[in-house]
Structure formats: C-alpha cells, structure tokens
What we know:
By secondary structure, the protein is an alpha/beta fold.
Amino acid sequence: MWPPEAERFADRTAAGRLLGTAVAAHLRQLDMTQAPLVLALPRGGVPVGYAVAETVHADFDLMVARKIGLPWQSDHGVGAIAENGPPVFDRGALACAGLTVSDLAPAVQRERVELRRRQERYRGSRPAAEVTGRVVILVDDGLATGVTARAAVRALQTQKPAHIVFAAPVCAAESVDLLAGDVDAVIDIHSPREFHALGLYYTDFTPVADTDVADICAMAWGAVKVPTPV
C-alpha cells in the first residue's frame, strides 16, 4: 500500500492536531505580543486549520482562494487568486497548454466574482481578521502544485503581517521548495519527493461542504451560522 499506513492520517481533524503540534514548536521560537492568527483555505483546509488553531490557541479566520482552470478544462488548475491579491499562474503549465496570461483574463474575472460570493457566504457581515503586524499561519489540507498557496501568500503579503507560516499535513517536496522563498516557514508532517494524489494520505478524505465550513466557523467565532443561499 502506498503511502505506508503509518504516513496516513485518519481524517483532516486528526491531521490538523498533529500539524498543530509542529506549528506550536515553531511558534515557541518567536517573540509574540498577541495571539497568532490561523487563516484556513476553504474548503479542505478549514477542518485542518480549526484543529491547528485549537492546538496553538490562535485566532481563526479564512483566506478564500479560487483556482483558475484551462478554458477547455476548468477543473485543471493553472493559476489561482486569493482575496484581493493578484492572480498567480503556473507558467510551465501555461506554456504546455499554449496559453498566455491574457488568454485567461475572462477566467480570472469569473473567479473573482465567485470568490467574493464565497466570502459573503462564509463570513456574512463579519469583517476579516486584522493581519497587519501579526504572526499568521496559512493552513490547507495539502500542498500539491502550490499555485493556490502562492496566490494566498501574495494576497497576505499586501496586508503586512509580521511573520507568515504555511502549514499543511502533507506537501509535495518540489512545491515546498518553490514556496519557501515567499514565506518565513513551511511546516508539514510529510513532504514526499514522489507526490501522487493528496487523498492517498487520508483514510477519510470526504469532501468538505459549504455547510461544514459554516459549522466550523460558527464554532470558532461563537456565532450563529451564516445561512447558505439557495
């Protein structure tokens, strides 16, 4: 069986607790004057991020990102956007597809509209957490190509946090190498050089629904759930 059973997580919450322990060890090296902030990438990163936030006693919020797909195959991501940050593209993937950044301008615009809609769905009228000057831990359930993480980091950098950590239970080693120059630390449990499907690292990799995100945010924020639009 690949990966070995010992390298598989029971589910995202269990993975988040293990990851939280590793994040806590990193935070102990820092001089912090206020609580750290976990920003989870919906949807898969939300249960992981909530578990990390509980473990390290951090504030919790979301960093909403959207994948940018090929014009003829929208589920094949070649770029991403996050919050109000600039789009980030996998230049190698664009070259292989014979596309330029300009060719994807309509897709970027569509995804910005969807991103704003999801921000409203998840947060409602709640303002985003203050980032400036804080230690921020950006969390996802895994790092594959890294393009979504890079978009999230670029968006985060515009808000001038004091220290940026990217954390995920499993990260493709090649993508860690690419992301490391943009953040202060990358923290993971496994970083294989041969990275296959992310789901192989989880016994339970059930898709996270918008209702799951709403439930977790309600627990984290001590608030009534934001109704999901029909």
